[in-house]
């Protein structure tokens, strides 16, 4: 269906004027509401006018040079709107496929924006990132253990240890009556002397560090070290002989796996990022430093627990079962240490030269730069005479970051790593911008008439670096 639209004065018509060479072309885009699920494809509406200074060249001569006109022109081009037909529907998917001269109009989509569900958020975060662990948390955690899925992996197959039906339930959906009845059972019977190693392994299984959770680095290290200290104290107090030795070996195995996972993941993601920015050896030094930080914290928590009886603070007869919940007692230990601030930073050495504060800050710094490389924010569309503005912009960022580094309380060794990483970062940032310009080039290849409208030249690195060094000198 073709409609002449030259005389239309609908308020939904948006007019844009493009000037190319000496030809004035007006482009109109019509938005037509769709009803009843009907999809309408709307083409370009072009009206070519001959400027007065063109003389007697005529409309055909103008059209011959217009990017909106076919090469062979037999008559003036009319404005038109094209409505798609069922013939353009792909049978397999039911999706309409407009051709290159058409645009697609969709019916308005209704949606409702809702706030994130905090219940689900807490369910998804690993224990090492959840923050405070209260008495209510301990009660719910013990209650939920009744419904966890027990089993083991046999190759690629998970084999359940029980044939009982699986019950899925959210924390906030537990009936209050059931929870109170369970609390009464704990008051009467306690949790028993046996350590819930399955629960310990689950809690310490998600200790990896990445850009998404690097802000929790110190919290995760404290969580692991305090759990270790409490369990070690419990085993030494509660068991003797072969039983004590076997339990301590089990603890050391789980603790070592957890801290190595944390160190390896930090080295791979954070250390690897700095390695890619030319800081050779950073990954190994950071890995060793993470291990040293965790071990140092574990020693500090163990020493504090030996001198401060955090169990003695629980005097209520109805709360004695909490003493057998090692996750809860670890949280109490962290609070006790935090209150007196007696924890000392481990001594750094040549193999592990970075402190906890160094590692935490380096992770956040790397996250910020990494996000810029993934989503570089700079105008790569507008044609520019030079790129000195980009150099000045990066210089401002550099000075801002260096100011933060000076006040961060980190070591000179880490400070030098961060400062030396910035210029290699600039190179990768420009690479990311050039990748966006490649998209412009592809666009011009498909639509040559856009060649003089969007940028196709790569970033002038020489002018960027010249402006950058001039601004920071």
Question: What is the fold's blueprint, element by element?
Answer:
Blueprint: E1 2-3, E2 13-20, E3 23-30, E4 40-43, E5 45-49, H1 58-64, E6 81-82, E7 102-105, H2 118-124, H3 135-144, E8 151-154, E9 157-160, H4 176-189, H5 197-203, H6 217-238, H7 241-276, H8 282-307, H9 326-340, H10 356-374, H11 388-406, H12 412-420, H13 422-446, H14 461-472
Antiparallel strand pairs: 1-6, 2-3, 3-5, 4-7, 8-9
Helix pairs in contact: 6-7, 6-8, 6-9, 7-8, 7-10, 10-13, 11-14
N-to-C terminal Cα separation, in Å? 66 Å
Q: What order do the SSEs take from the amino end to the carboxyl end, as H and E?
A: EEEEEHEEHHEEHHHHHHHHHHH
Describe the largest sheet: 3 strands, antiparallel
Report the portion of residues in β strands: 5-15%
Q: Give the count of helical stretches.
A: 14
* Overall form: globular
Structural class: mainly alpha
Mean pLDDT: 81
In the predicted model, the low-confidence regions spanning at least 5 consecutive residues are 1-74
**Rg (CA only):** 33 Å
């Amino acid at each position: 269906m073709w409609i002449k639209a030259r005389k239309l004065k609908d308020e939904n018509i948006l007019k844009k004027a493009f000037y190319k060479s000496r030809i004035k072309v007006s482009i109109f885009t019509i938005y037509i509401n769709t009803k009843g699920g009907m999809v309408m494809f709307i083409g370009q509406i072009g009206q070519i006018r001959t400027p007065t200074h063109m003389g007697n060249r005529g409309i055909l001569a103008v059209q011959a040079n217009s990017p909106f006109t076919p090469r062979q022109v037999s008559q003036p081009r009319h404005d038109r709107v094209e409505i798609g037909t069922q013939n353009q529907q792909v049978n397999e998917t039911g999706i309409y496929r407009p051709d290159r001269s058409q645009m697609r109009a969709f019916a308005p989509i209704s949606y409702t924006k809702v706030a994130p569900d905090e219940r689900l958020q807490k369910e998804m975060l690993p224990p090492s990132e959840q923050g405070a662990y209260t008495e209510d948390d301990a009660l719910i955690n013990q209650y939920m253990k009744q419904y966890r899925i027990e089993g083991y992996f046999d190759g690629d197959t998970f084999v359940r240890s029980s044939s009982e039906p699986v019950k899925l339930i959210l924390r906030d959906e537990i009936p209050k009556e059931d929870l109170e009845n369970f609390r009464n059972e704990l008051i009467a019977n306690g949790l028993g002397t046996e350590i819930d190693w399955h629960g310990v392994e689950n809690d310490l299984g998600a200790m990896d560090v990445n850009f998404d959770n690097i802000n929790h680095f110190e919290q995760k290290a404290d969580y692991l070290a305090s759990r270790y200290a409490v369990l070690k104290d419990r085993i030494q107090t509660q068991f003797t002989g072969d039983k004590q030795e076997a339990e301590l070996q089990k603890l050391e195995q789980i603790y070592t796996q957890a801290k190595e996972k944390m160190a390896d993941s930090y080295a791979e993601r954070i250390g690897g990022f700095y390695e890619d920015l030319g800081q050779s050896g950073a990954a190994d030094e950071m890995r060793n430093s993470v291990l040293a930080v965790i071990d140092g914290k574990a020693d500090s928590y163990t020493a504090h627990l030996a001198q401060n009886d955090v169990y003695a603070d629980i005097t209520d007869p109805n709360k004695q079962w909490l003493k057998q919940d090692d996750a809860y007692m670890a949280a109490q230990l962290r609070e006790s240490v935090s209150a007196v601030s007696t924890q000392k930073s481990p001594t750094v050495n040549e193999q592990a030269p970075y402190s906890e504060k160094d590692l935490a800050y380096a992770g956040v710094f790397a996250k910020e730069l990494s996000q810029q490389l993934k989503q570089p924010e700079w105008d790569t569309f507008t044609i520019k005479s030079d790129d000195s503005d980009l150099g000045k912009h990066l210089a401002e960022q550099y000075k801002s970051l260096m100011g933060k580094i000076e006040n961060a309380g980190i070591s000179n060794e880490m400070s030098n790593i961060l400062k030396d990483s910035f210029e290699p970062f600039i190179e990768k940032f420009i690479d990311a911008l050039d990748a966006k310009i490649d998209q412009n080039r592809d666009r011009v290849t498909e639509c040559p008439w856009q060649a003089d409208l969007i940028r196709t030249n790569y970033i002038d690195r020489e002018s960027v670096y010249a402006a950058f060094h001039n601004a920071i000198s």
